[in-house]
Amino acid sequence: MITFVPLTGFLGAGKTTTMIATAQALQEQGRRVAVITNDQGVELVDTALVRSKLDSVAEVTGGCFCCRFEDLVDAIRALVDGAGDVPVDTVIAEAVGSCTDLQATVVRPLRAHYGDSMVVSPLTTVIDPLRYLAFDRAARRGEPESDLSYLFRQQLTEADVIAVNKLDTIAPDRATELMARLAADYSNAAVVGYSAKSGDRVDDLVKAWDGPSGNHAVDLQVDYDRYAAAEAQLAWMNQDVRLTSEAPLDLTAWGRQMLAALGSWANCAGAVVGHAKLTVEAGDGDFAKLSLTAAGAEPTVDRAAEKTATTARVIVNARVACEPAELDAAVREAVATANAATGARSAATAPVSFKPGYPTPVHRLAATGA
Length: 370
Hints:
370 residues; alpha/beta; Rossmann fold; Alpha-Beta Plaits; six-stranded antiparallel beta sheet; 14 strands; globular; Zinc-reg_GTPase_activator; P-loop_NTPase; CobW/HypB/UreG nucleotide-binding domain-containing protein
């Protein structure tokens, strides 16, 4: 019997680091864990990071799990069937950060069609406390709810577990208040605070997956027009850039310069950053991975390169609330800024920014059909 652990949560919440940290915690308990990444596009930065940490990794691209349901099932089967002498017993999967309604479109269909071979754990929504507080402040000021805020709220409403990541980024008294407010506002969910980056209280999250799945018995009322509009606010870019340099290039420094420039542009343009991530990989496989989760913020180094190099490949995944052409231009300018700061030269593939199409789930089961 396979245990399947579904993760959801808004862009930039730290689902990938959560997936890695919990997978490692489960492995320490003797579990044999595989993971699945997911995105609307291809060439996923997160997959490269996960493969540097874990052995069994798959990805579902070109749409969320709800619209690529059979691809998700195929990925689970491939991980289990390809495990060799030590079979996988647990699969953790992170859905696209702009996706919601997973109880009806993923959790219940998996239970209904594959329940004889799979135990589906409580649906876990990962949140960044600073992102939550920003949305909450707007609501408390009486501002009209934006489509992005609506999407964020729906992700919380359908959660069995609300996983408050990066709890160490806010003061202890604010953390206590935030946890209490979430527990009161979303009483059907267990609320767990932790830090995937430091590993603090990750075991508490793993324990929560053994608890009951309360919200699978509740129908989430989703306005799919608003859901689609929220996704369409974001331009999605997956860009491939090749770097060369006469002198040895600090891969991490180049990535930091590039994301800082992109974040500065977003701040000036008033563009909400869902997330922007990149890897800078040398030919020998060494790579740096960095993230940006807010306009004007300091980039986060998720993995530093160990060596310098004179050639490298950059993969950029950016999700920003703007028009695709604006994001294309901003990324080009950010690359140029990083080149000027580090002495690198670059050649890029044609931009592939796009806006997601209307979400069309393969299945949507009501709670009474669970």
